[in-house]
Design goal:
The protein is of the alpha/beta class and about 950 residues long. About 40% of the residues lie in helices and about 15% in strands. It holds the Pfam family 2-oxogl_dehyd_N.
């Protein structure tokens, strides 16, 4: 019992590990002036054991050695060791030996043999030298206790220990893990490394599989080079170990229960992975190089952006593989992969071991791209965790033409960014494929055990330029002189195996010839490839539909009241904030029919109706539970104990799942995550909400490269809904515009919907339509701010029950069409400004049409309304945004088509401007008044 208490104390102690120097400094300060250190530390130092017969202050060296010994001893030795009472030479050297072991654990990676080219100039690390610890070769025959050094014996001679430490920590693997604060994780990694001295026994069959992988990697590149010389392929040559590495990782994952693997990677080595890991038919790839394509597949993309899916046979059963499609924005695919994995994992009962994410990075990209940090930061959060990711860096030591470390990053290693989440990092020399396989298995075991990210830094080189048409000698002459003379990994490993008698040269020749013949034949070259049966979602119900497809959207007022009562009910002892309580009392009145529904109630009712029907909802954003504008309150907070309640989760036992998360403060990574989630889960209403609409700027790459064009380029369907608060209320440039013009500019090929709902009933039916209609297209919503509480922006239960989203809404006042001389067309909040001013003016000669969907443009619905005004020649488009923004320029051609022949169309709104809005409320009000008057005044 005493030992376990002491162990627990030490595990949490500030005196452990790397903090020993800090403790020593504090103690020196304490000796000089006890009041100079914090009270907590004074108590620690006051309680130190007294050395018999002396004053504590007179034996500073002795006490410091006690701290050193405690800081360096392993857990067993620590718990059995009493504080040193002697300063004899043997005791001092024992402490130094334990410090030496600790130094190798901390810094051995800095002397590891990691660079296949031998170009790295490593700084001298004095901590790894015997002399630094007052030891020398004359002590080699002396036997010391090795503490927690996990070699299976308690004592070793210093000579044997020194050799063992160098084999373990300074060979082909450099392990960085001592930055991890969790003691269990550190000890687990120590045991894995030290028990086999980082070089476990490997069977002949495993060696043969490694060699076959290297033969395939090398053979594929040489074949492409001979058939298509000079064509861009972003060769893997130099990083060939990636192929046996991935195959070994997937095979090992299958034995531990993994059912799906999702891979994200950029260009380097992608074609090799497609053919030699996922089993893409080489003849299909060769056709792509030859320029052949199926015109029915849409716009298409370059071959090194393409994704692929297949099944892969492992000893534990078939595993489904998915290589994610991704564009040239190197690291943006990482959060997309995470989102896809999260959806798959939830389908498999939230078992993180069932789905494995693998991301493959470039060395310059992982250090240089900010989305990497964002994705790491999400890795352990409640709404975005995926049970850890195996992250592999193809570290070819050069980014495009930049190879100097001081130009590519500010840290020693490109992988240092991973330390922000205390991920272990295993650097490995790619020319030692057995070491690569060892760290691969270790990484997977760590991920599965601790459910955290782990990084493998595959240190290699790039045999050609950034692409095969580049000339790398122009910018890296010394590196490429070395590369030219350096044997390929296949040759190095083949020579090693023949030298040790593991395989004969004629067998190597046979394997090489067989692979070449398979490529010539054009058939799949992956023995483990299997036809797809393990994929867990069916997209067929969503294929082949157009916008006007029929779907059942009917819902009764009685059902709405029933749902309304459930989502406004909470336990009696659940104390709400006074403002939230008032809001919920109002909602109860809305359910009873005593008040019209506001936006927040209609939106929550939409969610209730969706999950009531068995569909799922996932809503994320920086303030999504409450709502940025204090309107949603789907997540309630008990003012007594801080407990949370989501009434939408408690409708009935058979309802669909609903998750609402306040996300990390990110746009790019979070929205990319939600895109990935939506592409893997068609049955879920997946929503990302920006805090303010213009915050979406931070995720522009996701809109441009994925959401707007993913279907055209890759055939990837996605039903992601994006809520972007938009509206001019005088809040300044950055809180007004969601940049509607940018989304309209991207509209083509019916790629997505752009909607601007203006009533609670409209948002209710728009959200339900997105789920119920059997097609999956992204939905971009310019959602309101001031309309959330606008007295005119209300709806009745009957209007919700209608079940129809109106893409265009005609005149609502009782105007005689024959008396109308002008028709004003508009969208969004400005409609209410126009309506109120027209009523104030008591005008009957101006009709107002509002467009609730700008794309796809509702031509037929619009024509039915416009038919009432065939005689009107004066047509106006009115918008709040400046003329060069908003809908005017990008939708004007639709407006011209909509108005009667011979009619004239003009613009009413703010003048063109560089800024989205002015920063002064007074100026805003003047502009708003002027544009409304301009739209309504007939001269």
């Amino acid at each position: 019992m005493q030992d376990s208490v002491m162990k627990a104390w030490w595990d949490s102690s500030h005196m452990a590990g790397a903090n020993a120097p800090y403790v020593e400094e504090l103690y020196e300060a304490y000796l000089e002036d006890p009041q100079s250190v914090e009270e907590a530390w004074r108590q620690v130092f006051d309680s130190l054991p007294k050395v018999e017969g002396t004053q504590l202050e007179d034996n500073h060296t002795t006490i410091r050695d006690q701290f050193r010994k405690l800081a360096s001893l392993g857990p067993v030795a620590r718990m059995s060791s009493a504080p040193a009472t002697s300063t004899g030479g043997s005791d001092e050297k024992q402490v130094k030996v334990l410090q030496l072991i600790n130094a190798y654990r901390f810094r051995g990676h800095q002397h590891a043999n990691l660079d296949p080219l031998g170009l790295w100039k490593q700084d001298r690390v004095r901590d790894l030298e015997l002399s630094h610890h007052s030891l020398s070769e004359s002590d080699f025959d002396t036997v010391f206790n090795v503490g927690s050094y996990a070699v299976g014996q308690e004592t070793m001679s210093l000579g044997d220990l020194f050799k063992s430490l160098n084999r373990t920590y300074c060979g082909s693997i450099g392990a960085e893990y001592m930055h991890i604060t969790d003691t269990e994780q550190k000890r687990w990694i120590q045991h894995q490394f030290e028990s086999v001295q980082a070089k476990p026994e490997i069977s002949k069959d495993e060696k043969r599989q490694i060699l076959k992988g290297l033969i395939a990697a090398d053979g594929m590149e040489k074949y492409l080079n001979s058939k298509f010389p000079g064509a861009k392929r972003f060769s893997l040559e130099g990083g060939d170990s990636l192929i046996p590495m991935l195959k070994g990782l997937i095979s090992e994952a299958g034995t531990t229960g993994t059912k799906e693997v999702v891979v994200g990677m950029a260009h380097r080595g992608r074609l090799n992975v497609l053919v030699n890991v996922l089993g893409k038919n080489p003849s299909v790839l060769f056709d792509e190089f030859s320029g052949k394509h199926d015109e029915s597949l849409g716009a298409g993309d370059v071959k090194y952006h393409a994704g692929f899916s297949s099944d892969f046979a492992t000893p534990g059963g078939n595993v489904h593989l998915a290589l994610a499609f991704n564009p040239s924005h190197l690291e943006i695919v990482n959060p997309v992969v995470m989102g896809s994995v999260r959806a798959r994992m939830e389908r498999r009962k939230n078992d993180p071991n069932a789905v494995l994410p693998i991301t493959i990075h470039g060395d310059s990209a992982i250090a240089g791209q900010g989305v990497v940090q964002e994705t790491f930061n999400m890795s352990q959060t409640r709404g975005f965790a995926v049970g850890g990711t195996v992250r592999i860096v193809i570290n070819n030591q050069v980014g495009f033409t930049t190879s100097k470390t001081e130009d590519t990053r500010s840290t020693q290693y490109c992988t240092d960014i991973a330390k922000m989440v205390q991920a272990p990092i295993f650097h490995v020399n790619s020319d030692d494929p057995e070491a690569v396989l060892f760290v691969t298995k270790l990484a997977l075991a760590y991920r599965n055990k601790f459910k955290r990210d782990v990084v493998i830094d595959l240190v290699c080189y790039r045999r050609h330029g950034h692409n095969e048409s580049d000339e790398p000698n122009a910018t890296q002459p010394l590196m490429y002189q070395k590369i030219k003379k350096h044997p390929v990994p296949r040759q190095i490993y083949a020579d090693q195996l023949t030298a040790e008698g593991s395989i004969e040269e004629r067998e190597i020749e046979r394997l090489t010839d067989e692979y070449r013949a398979a490529l010539d034949h054009g058939a799949c070259v992956v023995e483990e490839w299997r036809p797809m049966t393990e994929h867990s979602v069916d997209w067929s119900p969503y294929l082949g539909h157009d916008w006007d497809v029929d779907y059942d959207s009917a819902i009764s007022v009685e059902k709405l009241k029933e749902l309304g009562e459930k989502i406004t009910t909470y336990p009696d002892d659940f104390k709400l904030h006074s403002r939230v309580n008032k809001l919920y009392q109002d909602r109860k009145a809305m359910v009873a029919g005593d008040k019209n529904l506001d936006w927040g109630m209609a939106e929550n009712l939409a969610y209730a109706a969706i999950v009531d029907a068995g569909n799922a909802i996932r809503l994320t954003g920086q303030d999504s539970g409450r709502g940025t504008f204090f309107h949603r309150h789907a997540v309630l907070h008990n003012q007594t104990d801080g407990a949370c309640l989501i009434p939408l989760q408690h409708l009935h036992d058979k309802q669909g799942k609903i998750d609402i998360y306040d996300s990390v403060l990110s746009e790019e990574a979070v929205m990319a995550f939600e895109y990935g989630y939506a592409t893997a889960e068609p049955g879920c209403l997946t929503i990302w909400e920006a805090q303010f609409g213009d915050f979406a700027n931070g995720a522009q790459v996701v809109f441009d490269q994925f959401l707007s064009s993913g279907e055209a380029k890759w055939g990837r369907l996605c039903g992601l809904t994006v809520l972007l608060p938009h509206g001019y209320e005088g809040q300044g440039p950055e809180h007004s515009s969601a940049r509607l013009e940018r989304f309209l500019q991207l509209c083509a090929d019916h790629n997505w919907q752009v909607c601007i709902p203006s009533t609670p009933a409209q948002v209710f039916n728009m959200l339900r339509r997105q789920v119920l209609r059997p097609m999956r297209k992204p939905l971009i919503v310019m959602s309101p701010k001031s309309l959330l509480r606008h007295p005119l922006a209300t709806s009745t239960l009957d209007e919700l029950a209608e079940g129809v989203y109106h893409n265009v809404i005609g005149e609502i006042d009782e105007l005689n069409p024959d008396n109308v001389k002008r028709v004003v067309m508009c969208s969004g909040k400005v409609y209410y400004d126009l309506l109120e001013q027209r009523r104030k003016n008591e005008q009957t000669d101006v009709a107002i049409i509002r467009f609730e969907q700008l794309y796809p443009f509702p031509q037929e619905e619009c024509a039915q309304i416009v038919a009432n005004y065939g005689h009107v020649k004066d047509w106006v488009w009115c918008q709040e945004e400046p003329q060069n923004q908003g809908a005017w320029y990008n939708s004007q051609h639709h407006f011209w088509q909509a108005i009667p022949d011979g009619a004239h169309l003009r613009y009413a709104g703010r003048e063109a401007a560089a800024s989205p809005a002015v920063g002064y409320v007074s100026v805003h009000n003047q502009q708003q008044k002027a544009l409304v008057e301009d739209a309504l005044t007939i001269k």
